[in-house]
Amino acid sequence: MNSKNGMFILGCFLIMTNACQKNPIPINEEELITTLTLSVQKNGSNTITQFSFEDIDGVGGMPATIDSLLLEKNATYQVSISLFNKAAIPIDTITNEVLEEGDMHQFFYQSIPNTTIKNFAYQAPNDINDNPIGLHFSFDTDNTPTIGKLKIILRHQPDKNGLAVYNGDITNAFGETDIEIEFPVRLIE
Q1: Are the C-beta atoms of residues 128 and 102 closer than 8 Å to each other?
Q2: Taking the model in full, what pTM does it have?
Q3: Torsion, Cα of 153, 154, 160, 165 (10° steps)
Q4: What CA–CA distance (Å, rounded) separates 132 from 15?
Q5: What are phi and psi of 88, to 5 degrees?
Q6: What are the domain boundaries of the chain?
Q7: Which among 35, 73, 38, 71 has a CA at the least distance from the CA of 55?
Q8: C-alpha to C-alpha distance for 102 and 125, rounded to whole angstroms
C-alpha cells in the first residue's frame, strides 16, 4: 500500500468514526435566581400582600434582604411564588422557565418549628406528568400567636417518584438545590 492510499483510508476511517459519535446532550444550566417574591392572600380576603427575598449580587457580596411574614393565627393562606434574575438586563422572569421545565423542578416547604405553619398543599399547575411544581400552594397557621420560619426550597431535577416526594417530603427528592430561603414568620391575633 502506498502512502497516498494509506492517507485516503485513514481519512475515511476518521470521518466515519466522527460521524458515528452521538451528539452531545445539551446541558441545562441552573437558573440564577436573585429574587423570590411570595404573593400571600388569606382565605376570605381580597388583599394580597407581597414578601420578598433579594440578593442581586449573589453569595459573598452585599447581604441579602428578606421580608418577615406577618400572618394571622388560625388562618388559611394561598401563596404564589415569582422568581426573577434581576442581575440580567432586561430582568429575567425565572418563573416562566420553572413552569416550562416543571418536570425538572419542585418546591418544598417546611415550618420551623413544625407547628407554626402546617398543612402545606400544592396547588395547580402541575408538570406534564401531573406531579406538583409548587409555584402555588396553601397552608394553615397555628392557633396561637408565635414566631417561626417558613423554609422554601426549589430542587432542580428531583426524583418526583421518590417516596412521599409527591406530597412534599424532600427526604427522598435528591436533585440539586436552586434556591433555599428561610422567611421569618410572626403569627398575630
Answers
A1: yes
A2: 0.83
A3: 10
A4: 46
A5: -85, 150
A6: 27-188
A7: 35
A8: 9
